[in-house]
Amino acid sequence: MCPRKRGTGMKLQSLALVGTVGLLAGSSFANVVSTVAFTGLAEWTEFAAKPAFFPAGWTTATTSESFDSKRSVTQPSISGGLGWSSWTASASSGDVTQEFGAMSVSKSGPTLIFTFSNKPSALGGLHGIGGDFGFIDASGNYQSGRIEMTLSNGAAIIQEFTAKASFAGFWITDPEVTITGISLKPLDATYAVSATNMYFGYAGVPAPGALALLGIATVFARSRRRAINR
Prior knowledge:
By secondary structure, this protein is mostly beta strands.
């Protein structure tokens, strides 16, 4: 069963209550928090515009990271992002590679791990995360995989991809809890893992001028991606 917000066409589901949504199934919680999962980017983005899900007076904002790079980089860890979406990518074993607009493990089998800056953000805390994720077999086909999201209160929310699609997104609506990391684990040692886009959602009371800064930086990031892709 998947509740629908009347008049919006937005499908959402509280994992803490139900545990399945679209291609995601099989949730596990160390501590129960108010978590919502999505299987489409449009719905994930639309959720940020629904103030009723966050405390009164809070502002939400989203931005993205595409991993565009002019050269291939392979090393034990790779860091990037802007101030409110700073990230470090690493693998449970071996190196990570950034090339062709994707972040991936350098060999089949390891987990791809993203950790996010825990410093206070002028926009509020990191309450939303999404991405175009791939668990890829030797033939280049999508396969099942496991996503583990770590939270500031010590919770570990585990979801499994059960269909051959790429997007998965989450929002944490608990005001006291933020997202500190996400791990992508293949269910078979012959599968490789990659992420071609990451989406970040912030919620809270922003510092003066923070939203204007976000708009400028987002335009810059989009212009940079267009220039690289030409």
